[in-house]
Here is the input.
Amino acid sequence: MTGSEPLTIDEEYNMQQSWRNDEDKCTFIILVKTSSEQPNSLHSIETMIGDVNFYLNSHDNPHEAELEVMIAEQAYSGRGVATEVLNLMMHYAVNDIGVTDFVVRIKETNNASIHIFEAKFGFIETERSKVFKEVTLRRQVTDDFKTGLNAWTEQNSKRAIFEPF
Here is the structure.
């Protein structure tokens, strides 16, 4: 989870409904197929385990997206789901929306999320807020970063657990 407060799964469903028509937000629901169903079955049951979002809310840079990810179901935390959906979301934002810069704001105690953005994606800490107790990390989209996103997505897209809202 990034800078948002923990939500119950019911609160998460309600919040997703309110975002449906907002033009400055892009939300994808993270779904997982239940293990009792056959892979790729037309009758498989999908369960929501979280969401990944970006917001186009910078007045100074209309090509900057603020990212958030939240894995609501603890059974899926720490299993690489956040890294996978962030790869897919950033790929979409860069290639389909034209995002050139990313920013995240993470609670300073959320070491796991800070690690994902710094170690996996090369984000750099740019500020700390004592008032909000959060860390701001940024990442510019370079040609190398875009190439990496595209390669990862090409290699892994068939096994993704990511569905549009």
Q: What stands out?
A: The radius of gyration is 16 Å. The first strand starts at residue 25 and ends at 33.
